[in-house]
Design brief:
Blueprint lengths: L6 E8 L4 E20 L7 E3 L3 E15 L6 E12 L6 E11 L9 E7 L2 E7 L5 E7 L8 E7 L4 E6 L8 E5 L2
Antiparallel strand pairs: 1-5, 2-3, 2-4, 2-5, 2-6, 7-8, 8-11, 9-10, 9-12
Length: 178
């Protein structure tokens, strides 16, 4: 982005879990300014103007480790040109950003080998450690009333659950991660 005061704005999720945001920025013929703060202002804002070069390009990586005081917050990052040393070509650049940490997100999964044996309905699914899985059924898909029949902790492998004494007729199944 060329022009004094122009630049980039980023937001990243924030809650009480620790996260690390790495921002890869640079500039040519410019002094850049990076500002970062939490939306709930639960930590001191960060500002830096060390990205500065008169006649060449400069590139840096900012590593910001953060956690907010409460859930549902954001880390707000602004990177802009503070002073232009080359009025025609001076600019700030944003190459990339990476975010790590925070709570693990469950991976998508699917039911494996669902089958009825006698009056019982058996289904298997792959799990992840650290998540609980609740298997539920409903006799109607149009107006479902979901009933839990098993809750199991994930172990990183396949788990099998059984819905015992299933009546004849249609029945719908799902597995939730509460």
């Amino acid at each position: 982005m060329t022009g004094t005061g122009n630049g980039f704005n980023l937001t990243a999720p924030a809650d009480t879990n620790s996260r690390t945001l790495r921002i890869y920025v640079g500039g040519y013929g410019v002094q850049g300014e990076l500002q970062a703060y939490l939306s709930d202002l639960s930590a001191k804002p960060f500002a830096d103007t060390s990205v500065s070069n008169y006649y060449d390009s400069v590139y840096v990586v900012y590593t910001i480790r953060y956690a907010a005081a409460s859930a549902g917050q954001h880390l707000i990052v602004n990177y802009r040109s503070l002073n232009l040393f080359d009025e025609a070509y001076g600019n700030v650049t944003l190459q990339s950003a990476t975010l790590s940490g925070g709570p693990a997100e469950p991976l998508p999964f699917s039911l494996v080998d669902p089958r009825r044996i006698g009056n019982d309905f058996i289904l298997s699914f792959n799990t992840q450690t650290g998540f609980n899985y609740t298997a539920e059924f409903s006799d109607s898909i149009l107006n479902p009333n979901w009933n839990a029949f098993a809750t199991v902790p994930g172990n990183g492998g396949a788990l099998t659950v059984t819905n015992y004494n299933v009546p004849i007729g249609p029945r719908f199944y799902r597995v939730r991660i509460p």
